[in-house]
Amino acid sequence: MQQYEAAATSCLAAFSAGSPRWPLQPSSTTRAGFLRWAEAKVNPLKPVFRQGAREAPDFSFQSLADDSPHALSEYRGKVVVLNFWATWCPPCREEMPGLDRLQQKYGGEGLVVITVSDEGKSQIAKFVGYDQMRVVKGRVDSNLPANGLYVRPDVARPVTHIIDRDGILRETLIAGQDYNSLEKHILFYLKSRAWRPNR
């Protein structure tokens, strides 16, 4: 199964680049099993990728701290990194310090990093150090159906959307990203036009 997962990750990366390519040519003995697995992972993501270069659908979540409701539309005028993560996901945990570093370094230039989990508060609290991070911390109900920007955890984690100042969904990244990679992705959109604070 590991070779299937690696192949599907490569396929998903191709989809996120906007040009579906299938780099793996599995043998006849593995093709059927791989295609069934990949179909279950890729098909639910197709609606997300079709949103690319269009206005991002609004997305609602609750503050982890006090359960207050919030929406993606509140952050119009800023570059938004919307990250779906889970405590059980090693790449999610590994990339979180990089997301926090981005928020601290570029928050003053109009970046906001929103991290959203569909786990319970008690489970999220087990991730040591998360409560001290500067990112926006949100959660959604675990029964939330896949729609718009939300991707079910059984399909992919982490999932990171990058939305520009005009609310356009520019990129969707599947799998964990290191700090340098994330920084390269956001810098273009941060510099695309002068940031003016909301008034």
Task: Provide a descriptive summary of the structure in words.
This protein is of the alpha/beta class and 199 residues long. It has 2 domains: 2-46, no CATH class; 51-190, Glutaredoxin (3-Layer(aba) Sandwich). It is built from 6 helices and 7 strands, in the order αααβββαβαβββα. Helix 4 (90-106) links the parallel strand 3 and strand 4. Residues 1-26 and 194-199 have low confidence and may be disordered.
Q: How does the SSE layout of this entry go?
A:
Elements: H1 2-16, H2 28-42, H3 46-50, E1 60-63, E2 69-71, E3 79-85, H4 90-106, E4 111-117, H5 121-124, E5 136-139, E6 159-163, E7 169-174, H6 179-190
Q: Top keywords for this entry?
A:
Glutaredoxin; seven-stranded mixed beta sheet; 6 helices; 34% helix; globular; disordered C terminus
Q: How many strands, what sense, and barrel or not for the largest sheet?
A: 7 strands, mixed
The number of helices is 6
CATH topology of the largest domain: Glutaredoxin
Low-confidence stretches: 1-26, 194-199
CATH superfamily annotation of the largest domain = Glutaredoxin
Structural class: alpha/beta
Helix fraction, binned, reads 25-40%
The total domain count is 2
Question: What is the rounded Rg?
Answer: 17 Å
Question: What is the structure about, briefly put?
Answer:
By secondary structure, the chain is of the alpha/beta class. It has 6 helices and 7 strands. It has 2 domains: 2-46, no CATH class; 51-190, Glutaredoxin (3-Layer(aba) Sandwich).
